[in-house]
Amino acid sequence: MAPAFRRDMLGTLLDGFHRYGDVVTYHFGPRWGPRAVSQNVVMAHHPDGIHEVFTTPRVFSRRTTGFQVLTEFIGAGLLTSDGEVWLRQRRTLQPLFTPRRVAGYTELMTAEAERVAADPTVAPGSTVDLHHLMQRYALRVVGRALFGDDVDEAIPQLQRLMPILSDLALARALQVVRAPLRWPTPRTRRITRERAAQYGIVDAIIARHADREPGAERDDMLSRLHTARDPETGQPLSTEEIRDQVLVFLLAGHETTAGALTFTLHLLGRYPEIQDRVAKGDADLVRAALLEGMRLYPPAYSTERLADVDTTIAGYQVPAGTRVMLSSFVTHRHPDFWPDPDRFDPDRFTGQHTRPRYAYFPFGGGPRSCIGEHFALLEATVLLRTLLARYRVEALDQRLRLAPMITLRPAEPVRAVLRPR
Ligand code: HEM
């Protein structure tokens, strides 16, 4: 199946679901051979199976090829760590993301949203790339909220690096045999070079943080990382650990939110009547539009786990060592829970609905669910309310070409015209 996945991952997954249903096995590599080159990947599409994979303790881990490759690229921060190390990191960082703590960022987010609305490139009637605009917004918010920093100078660099690194990482994850990064092939050299550029951005953020008001009492993420101590050994985090953590939050903290906003604004731009209702509606309707945008285009569209022991998913036997994939992109179109699945309809998320918990999981689930969920929801609704109060968004394209990389990204600029209301 590897060639089909490389050619059209989303189409292949949807086709597999429509043909075979709630649990599908895909074979990668030659039919026979050692597990390193010949393996089955099990996709669970039904909410019950997803529930099992996300929440059964000590059965499904992150020791998968995808997460190993991600670790090579972005180190061992909260997203990629596992076991005890992960638990310690999550405990250190969780207090920064409680709903109360996150609510404290409302003002900063509002100011940044106003800045987007006042941006000279958004001049009435001119064409904008929504993705570009939303990436800038999300990066500025993360920079200020988590690192107390103005990351503007890094924005063009990150906008250049993200697609390159995602592409390199995905290609590496789909390779059956991977040369270690220390072997100098053209591809590993490229990875090493782009990765160094990425850590250059991180080091600049850490250096600026250290220069600012030394000794001042702050409680942003960097201060917390500097003061964190291992409860058993009393050791502080190493420089490497701090760099990796900053990188993970810089990337995970902006890429997905920017995607969610881009997709939602594009959809609203395609359906002017819905947009007008949302623009005049209350906060709940704005939130519903965002949730519906992430239903159709979930920025974290797929994830994977490794079955560490022999187990079952939805009654099917799954041997130890099997890769298990979950795709919100597919489950969010499951017709048992989402009638007329391709229709954009924010009312799916207004009022009362009874759906299984895992019919919808844009933020994942179980203990490893997104730590930034409240942060992202607040940040995105603030932007939508601010922008829609000021402008009517007209989408210039009726179709969205998607690039499923590590996250779901638009394959090309998402063009829109903003007209004052
Ligand atoms: C709309 C925006 C976002 C979406 C759709 C999203 C989605 C997700 C998903 C699905 C996961 C779980 C991945 C898995 O199970 O393999 C996750 C994990 C994570 N997210 Fe988000 N995320 C968003 C915003 C954010 C923000 C704003 C931050 C940080 C400020 C963040 C930081 C993280 C981190 C660090 C993890 C790893 C958590 C752990 O394993 O303990 N995310 N996210």
UniProtKB/TrEMBL annotation:
Molecular functions per Gene Ontology: heme binding; iron ion binding; monooxygenase activity; oxidoreductase activity, acting on paired donors, with incorporation or reduction of molecular oxygen
Which co-factors does it depend on? heme
What SUPFAM superfamilies has UniProt attached to this entry?
Cytochrome P450 (SSF48264)
- Residues annotated to bind heme: C370
Concerning InterPro entries, the annotation shows: Cyt_P450 (IPR001128), Cyt_P450_CS (IPR017972), Cyt_P450_E_grp-I (IPR002401), Cyt_P450_sf (IPR036396), Cytochrome_P450_Monoox (IPR050196)
> Which Pfam family, giving just one, matches this sequence?
p450
Matching Gene3D superfamilies: Cytochrome P450
Q: Which UniProt keywords apply?
A: Heme, Iron, Metal-binding, Monooxygenase, Oxidoreductase
Q: Which family does it belong to?
A: Belongs to the cytochrome P450 family.
Descriptive protein name? Cytochrome P450
Native organism: Phytohabitans rumicis
